[in-house]
TrEMBL record, chains A, B, C, D:
<dbReference type="InterPro" id="IPR000192">
    <property type="entry name" value="Aminotrans_V_dom"/>
</dbReference>
<protein>
    <submittedName>
        <fullName>Septum site-determining protein</fullName>
    </submittedName>
</protein>
<dbReference type="InterPro" id="IPR024169">
    <property type="entry name" value="SP_NH2Trfase/AEP_transaminase"/>
</dbReference>
<dbReference type="InterPro" id="IPR015422">
    <property type="entry name" value="PyrdxlP-dep_Trfase_small"/>
</dbReference>
<dbReference type="InterPro" id="IPR015424">
    <property type="entry name" value="PyrdxlP-dep_Trfase"/>
</dbReference>
<keyword id="KW-0663">Pyridoxal phosphate</keyword>
<feature type="domain" description="Aminotransferase class V">
    <location>
        <begin position="61"/>
        <end position="330"/>
    </location>
</feature>
<comment type="similarity">
    <text>Belongs to the class-V pyridoxal-phosphate-dependent aminotransferase family.</text>
</comment>
<dbReference type="InterPro" id="IPR015421">
    <property type="entry name" value="PyrdxlP-dep_Trfase_major"/>
</dbReference>
<dbReference type="Pfam" id="PF00266">
    <property type="entry name" value="Aminotran_5"/>
</dbReference>
<dbReference type="InterPro" id="IPR020578">
    <property type="entry name" value="Aminotrans_V_PyrdxlP_BS"/>
</dbReference>
Length: 397, 397, 397, 397
């Protein structure tokens, strides 16, 4: 039998759960894109996006996914032949590097593995070795959804400042914006990349590049028409916001999502909610891990993302668990992306729980509850008291 | 802080959670009510409704809520001055009696209290005393959402048969249809009343009266135009289905809901899901009840509804818990309807968990999880291991 | 080929076109019906409904269609055996009479045919003959959607006043509320019946009974539980508003519709729009009628409804036209209800154009435009200049 | 007063009217992007898109608007320093040229003005002068929404073939796909660019590049990651379809739109509908133009698009008319894009009527009807009989 017939819960690390209010806002006739209400509404998006990103800089909105936003950031800042230092802490760091390469940019990568954050010492060594300042940018992912590691961006900036290195600091916050604390200006981030479908609770289809005046000043002479962040961030005519036709329905959805963030109490409240929910999940996973093979991919809580938790469980228990909770209980977990290749048997020993965006205590406790049921049903050894431990964290709210 | 910002879960005992698919089906332009697709669609509703009710009899659909369906059942079957025997096991039994009274029907009530089912012995005594067969109908609620008691309808019929009493057996399945096993024909039920907003997963606004040939034969000469079940169940013209304008959008929603029931595997699969989920809830409540004051209103599991569970917790803990889980965790529990008056301090010592309709294991485990969090947060004493116990029941799926 | 693939326009005389905003408002999770936002919202409906009805009296909201509202009005005001004078100007007048009859009320009907309004002289004669004041109520339809006649309600009241007859004046505004000017208090109407699916732009499923203090004072001792307007109009507890479970989603839709009326500029603006659009339609129909057989059912413009226009065209031209515009052009016209029986060949010589509720100049000109195309395509003789004549009326806006 | 309160009709040349069915299909929870139903659905899109484009080639879907699709086409086919011959027949031809330029491609443009199609003789002269075959591609817009001109693509190919010129033929069908007849393979088109928000009836946010094997063979070594059409058209892994996260909700909408095209009878039926509706519009505009200053921008019907009609009316009559029909009648017309600058008084002498996608006879006749009303209201001279003339065209259906 199955107990899945009810509202399914998609707990993959993005797209996240779309709020009914966002979907409702998108269920509208097409608006006029030359005059009227849409134009006024769009003018109000940038200030609210910048408040979420904690910056007084600029924001360009792209009709694109996160990969498009990566390319936009690369296209505006680096000329073919210039060098970027990419700090890799999982699949998405490597992915950004590939985008740079395709733009003709020389990529110098440091790989910190799949279970660790950036090591400041290695970073410092690499930058110190660059006496000629050939490295024009340092690119790092704030939260890597594959590993669920969270990098300390302020620490990266501190290394750069200590060395007086002039490179731009470029950060991928696709998985972390409006989830994990991120302070663009205070942390000295020059360029930041995000997308709509995670913390911003809007269907996939919008990418964002935030940039400060330093980055604007460094812009290459002639980026591509589509990626050029200049007119998008500071349009003279409305169509320039989007380099052509506006993504009307996504904008309606994004407006609703930003309103929801404001009504919750602003970005600090959103961060606090995600932190507490993540801690509840960790409490459960740590308790289960007391017996059997379950293990959080990132051991140190200080280095864990609040957006997603990657788990190692070994054998084929990851795939079996995912199948059970989806078919029996209405919960869809994420695959263990980037930990092994899909045709490698080890692939089946991983899974991830997404907990970003429109998520509350009920959804989290439900996810944990059916994971425990799955462990029991499948005979997967696990420690006791996990759900009570999670509930105790929720109780602190 | 609050952890409620996510998809809220309304776990009151009706209206239940409306499936996205039902809401989507209702988001349509108004259809033609004189010709076309709507007419064909409506013709297919009755067979599917009767399959859900396990009857080969008739069904009349009313634009009304459950109270309207009560009135429809009364209006068709009993003349002013005739007598009905009402078996009261909670607020809704009493409510139906009031509707009969307003129709001029004489009501003889037996009250079995708020924590027990119909006692066959008392019923037998009452019927045996009616040698003249002045009692024309016996009315009983299958599941009373106030007390969460479930009556044994087959047992009621057995008493009537044993005595050869010719009264109609009329059953209120508003809370139980498509939730708890109900066999209209096999159990000898003559008239059954239901509504859209619980197991049928459609917004409030439709009432149903199912009736067999015996009840049809007994129909009073001229029931009211609106309540007359004859043309509704066997219309010569389309508008007679609904005694006037069809409830177009509700019908679209109902069609989707009936499709969902069929796709789940039919009514047996739906019953099995509800039973398992109810048992998971009971396992948690029983474990919590090992310490402190929490108590299931209905002690005997065999007498408990699968649609809702009524709890007694005392003091103001019921109201405090309801407030906490709603404001902090995104879960709305039901008030303790009918257990005390709202201005009585005892009012605050009750709550209910609805678990009917579009509910899966994730939703149930989430509800239980945040209830435990609420107990912890509010310092309400409770037994340990409740969530694990619930998960173990889910694991049987 | 067909040119129908686009947004279809349903121009039947109800249900009318549902605004996207209303459908959107209904596309929501089920709300709590015991506490919270829904309760506050519902409290605000009555004042706005009364503003639309131009009354300071009371309003009871029913989960029902218009036939249910008819029955509610009858059930509260007239005892079995009492007499009502029903003024019949089409199918719906006769229909209301049938509802009274089924309640045991004695119906005295005056039939004014299908092409005329109430004749004050005949009314005066009937009332004058009732020296004993056995007639307890006079019931009349404001606008009959079958004939598209509009009765002069103030004139009916004037006759009653002139004779000092104490009967209640009961008016059916199902098709006219929020369409044609209606002044409940100023015109001396005691009871008024309406429904959601026409001028109120909300799916079928809500009926309304407005009543003044005189009618309230005359209420029968114990109307049925479901129809009793007392608790609905003046509830002590929330559930009494709806005699049980609230029609949650319809209420959300109705709220949006009432907001739209207010934002348009209030009921006077809504009336003015409907009048102008109706006059545009008449201009076209009159021009077409200069050749061929097309004829407006109601000759005198002062007696025509602003909600719907009934046409006579003879032969099978009505049915042919309806089929052509629906299949070829995306317009659904109304059948000629009540003019002939469906199995009478004459049935096919009628059609109706609904123009109530959410309708603007574009929709009206489109309807008229494709009707002309249909005339041309089908070789139906018709006068020239009709569309230009209609456009000239629209130009007065 | 205003007669605009009803369903507004947005008749700008894109975004077009979104069908309720498309919006409904998009009103869904986020689907899993790693497994399940979405993956199967996406695999079925390409065949249906190619059927609409009449090609057996390849299609790459981009999260982008039409400008993004332009850039994708340029990025895959032309190296910096290579030459493209751009045939300009309005704003959009020029716009595509700008995108090429920004990619470092040398643009040779021939401007045919704003009221004419490509002149084969000029094209032939330009190609003949390119004996060295430095021109690697010829780029032309099929339908320019600014001028409403439609170019004869087969004629362009004929010139190229006659000269044996090896350049790629690249066509922008953003405004014409699923509107005007377009035969990619039969007409020898190598690369074709389109977008979702016009004939494909899906909100802005998807761009498409169709290409044949010849174009694939010519692909530059390493186009940008995001624009690379290779993996998108022939993905080894699902995420490659979209170069990262799939645009989940747009895909659901596109699926519904493609289903609607199939159900209408396929692309031939869609083309026939658009042609007839365009001819109805032209009949009206030509009749109005018999008096006063109104003039179709493209004189020769054979050169007019079926997607949009650009009008010249002079003075400020364009802006006055647009304002009147929007505020009074619920119709939004397009501005006269590209005919003059917005700060030039001449700007106000133009307007456009979009008639692409989800449009039927009712919508078209309504648009024409209220335009006539606007002429009357504003005292703008115009010929008589326009609406009757349009209706006569519709009658041919």
């Amino acid at each position: 039998m199955t107990l899945a017939h009810g509202r399914p819960y998609l707990a993959i690390p993005g797209p996240s759960v779309m709020p009914d209010r966002v979907l409702n806002a998108m269920h509208q006739p097409a608006p006029n894109i030359y005059e009227g209400a849409l134009l006024d509404m769009v003018a109000g998006l940038a200030p609210d996006l910048k408040a979420v990103a904690r910056t007084s800089g600029h924001v360009a909105i792209y009709i694109a996914n996160g990969h498009g936003a990566w390319e936009a950031a690369a296209n505006n800042t680096l000329r073919p032949g210039e060098k970027v230092l990419v700090l890799v802490t999982g699949r998405f760091g490597a992915g950004w590097g590939e985008v740079f390469t395709r733009q003709g940019v020389e990529v110098q990568a440091i790989d910190f593995g799949k279970r660790a954050t950036v090591d400041p010492a290695q970073l410092e060594a690499a930058l110190a070795a660059d006496a000629a300042h050939e490295i024009k940018a340092v690119a790092v992912v704030h939260v890597d959804t594959a590993t669920s590691v969270k990098n300390d961006i302020a620490a990266v900036r501190a290394v750069m400042d200590r060395l007086g290195h002039p490179a731009l600091l470029m950060v991928d916050c696709i998985a972390s914006l409006a989830v994990d604390r991120f302070e663009m200006d205070a942390w000295g981030v020059d360029v930041m990349v995000a997308a709509s479908q995670k913390g911003l609770m809007t269907p996939p289809g919008l990418g964002f590049v935030f940039f400060n005046d330093k980055a604007a000043a460094r812009q290459v002479e002639s980026p591509s028409f589509y990626w050029d962040w200049g007119p998008r961030a500071n349009p003279a005519m409305f169509y320039q916001y989007f380099g052509g036709t506006a993504p009307t329905h996504h904008l309606l959805g994004l407006r609703a999502a930003l309103d929801m963030i404001a009504e919750e109490g602003g970005i600090e409240a959103v961060w606090a909610r995600h932190e507490k929910l993540a801690r509840a999940a960790w409490a459960a996973f740590e308790a289960w891990g007391q017996e059997g093979r379950l293990e959080l991919n990132i051991a140190d809580p200080a280095l864990r993302a609040h957006a997603v938790t990657a788990l190692r469980i070994g054998g084929d228990d990851g795939s079996r668990l995912r199948a059970w909770v989806e078919q029996k209980a209405g919960l869809t977990l994420g695959i263990g992306l980037g930990m092994a290749e899909p045709d490698d048997p080890a692939w089946h020993g991983f899974f991830r729980l997404g907990h970003m965006g429109h998520i509350n205590a009920h959804m989290m406790m439900g996810a944990l509850g059916v994971i425990e049921a799955g462990f029991v049903a499948l005979g997967i050894p696990h420690g006791k008291g996990a759900l009570a431990a999670a509930a105790a964290v929720i109780a602190e709210a």
